[in-house]
Amino acid sequence: MKTLAQRHDMDEVLSRLANVRPDSPRQWGHMSAPQMICHLSDAFRMAGEKPLPDDSTLAQRTLIKWMALYAPLPWPTGKLVTRPEIDQVRGGGCSPGVFADDVARLVTLVDQFTTRDRRTGWPAHPFFGAMSSSAWLRWGYLHMDHHLRQFGV
Questions:
Q1: CA 125 vs CA 6, 61, 101: distances in Å
Q2: Tell me, what's the pLDDT at 117?
Q3: Among 65, 101, 102, 146, which is least packed by CB within 10 angstroms?
Q4: Is the pLDDT of residue 119 over 80?
């Protein structure tokens, strides 16, 4: 299972991230490539500096979380609703700026996310509820992978 806890998996997604361009065409969804970069940054912030309220249901905290994190299936495309706080299309979250600066900021956030002390408590995920550090690191890989695939990289 790929996870940001493994250096080679992190290097893989960062290498793919380097292939995203401001005009990269999306394969599904509504975000532009610059909006996707900001969305990923905001999503990593919700795991630390900007936690969101836990609005998870019992089904989300159990079956759906297990399926999303551990079933060998890609995440569905264009079917999940993004939280308003990290939805760049609808005006939530940070706004895109200079693309190269936004990508550099995302890389810094990934580094902070992966080097965080894994023994300390992590905030609840707004959709999946309480998660261990290993679950957060798995989610981080899968979330990046999902949006990089959205832009064909």
A1: 21, 9, 27
A2: 81
A3: 101
A4: no
